[in-house]
Design a protein that fits this description.
The chain is mainly alpha-helical and 110 residues long. The protein has 4 helices and no strands. The longest helix has 21 residues.
Length: 110
């Protein structure tokens, strides 16, 4: 079927039904990843059953690898909190004022 059959007659291709893209949850993607590694059934069979393509599986494997490397690169312990520069400058100025006021009111002992 062509987009236009003649100069006067045109067909609207946007109304034709297209296969809907399937959205997989992160848990389902991880399940597919694990099943592809298990070797219990052929990968092609699993792809047909799940309705995905081999490129989808390759993308899932890449995402799992990236996620694992990101998490393994993290160091244990508390994370440093990032403060916007404007807030930092305001806090620094406030602290300096308080330290100056403290020095003026506290007598120096020798």
């Amino acid at each position: 079927m062509s987009v236009s059959q003649s100069k006067d007659q045109q067909i609207d291709v946007s109304s034709e039904k297209r296969p809907r893209r399937r959205h997989l949850s992160p848990e389902k993607k991880y399940q597919i990843f694990l099943e592809s590694l298990s070797g219990k059934s052929p990968v092609g069979e699993m792809l047909r059953r799940e309705g995905i393509y081999s490129t989808d599986l390759a993308r899932i494997r890449q995402k799992v690898k990236e996620g694992a490397l990101e998490r393994l690169a993290d160091r244990p312990g508390a994370k440093r909190k990032k403060v916007p520069l404007g807030d930092y400058e305001a806090l620094k100025h406030d602290l300096e004022e308080k330290e100056r006021a403290y020095r003026l009111h506290v007598p120096v002992r020798c």
